[in-house]
Amino acid sequence: MTRIGWLGTGRMGTAMADRLLDAGEQVTVWNRTKSKTEPLAARGAAVAGALGDLGDCDIVFVMVSRPSDLAEVITGPGGLLAAPRRPEVIVDCSTVSADVSATVREAAERAGVAFLAAPVSGNPHVVAGGGACIVASGPAATFERARPYLEQIAKVAVHAGEGEQARLVKLCTNLYLGMMVQALVEVTTLAEKGGTDRAAFLEFFNGTVLGSDWTRRRGGDLISRDWTPTFTTELLRKDFDLGLAAARALEVPMPVGSAVYQLIQSAIGTGLREKDFLALYEQQARAAALDQPPAPG
Questions:
Q1: Domains in the chain with CATH codes
Q2: Would you say 180 and 205 are in contact if contact means Cβ atoms under 8 Å apart?
Q3: What pLDDT score was predicted for residue 294?
Q4: Which pLDDT score is estimated for 296?
Q5: Among 57, 79, 56, 81, which residue's Cα sits nearest to residue 4?
Q6: Cα angle for residues 19, 124, 265 (degrees, 5° grid)
Q7: Residue 43 has what DSSP assignment?
Q8: What pTM, to 2 d.p., does this model score?
Q9: Hey, how many other C-beta atoms are within 10 angstroms of the C-beta on 289?
Q10: pLDDT digits over 205-251, tens only?
Q11: Closest-CA residue to 104 (of 60, 151, 56)
């Protein structure tokens, strides 16, 4: 049996590793804060005593929040590549820039380790339900080596190219997600201020061709103003930073995305940093002077 390592057991990492355990895989996990590995350990995962111990695994998956975290856990002094033994393949599922990914890939290849960029689309609830999508890039042979496990985690695993294409594809998806949510909260606020109940508007909207699985699934949270984080406003800003930087480098105008970035920044500045990014509604409602009680929580 292939020995699988999992580095990073936050909300997303735990949900993804859970999928591998559900499929009967042998998984060893590590996280900087050890207590976050406990739910997976309770389900049968082994817990590595140190990050370098994951080098005994054949394939190591990585899910961290920031580009600097990725560099630290792979190329840093105590990272995977500094361990006495190294995995055959590293599969990074984080959302980071192409530049950082390329630097880490080069370091891995120099150390004789294959590297696959494989960011995932979907929040932890979507992952747990088997609805996530993964876009991967790197050598085709490396993708095929990891593919059975990617398909255990997600309903779709697509190979987008031999280099860093997956990074940009994921950033494009998250740029669209932010723009879509801002558009949704704008029209919802407009209808609501004109006297239509928020729930009635969203029921109608989700019945039209404009509705989607996402708007139908998250509509209840928007109605109840439940901003329990699935993906925070701060993390969305990070992806907009990366995505708009890529657009500048490629000389692609992003007028809508640039405007939404400023609205995300404004939401963070008014206290919504750690809330779910659907809380962009709160910023829009305030801007429209929509009279309503304080949000729960």
A1: 3-163 (3.40.50.720), 168-287 (1.10.1040.10)
A2: no
A3: 78
A4: 74
A5: 57
A6: 150
A7: T
A8: 0.86
A9: 7
A10: 999 999 999 999 999 999 999 999 989 999 999 999 999 999 999 99
A11: 60
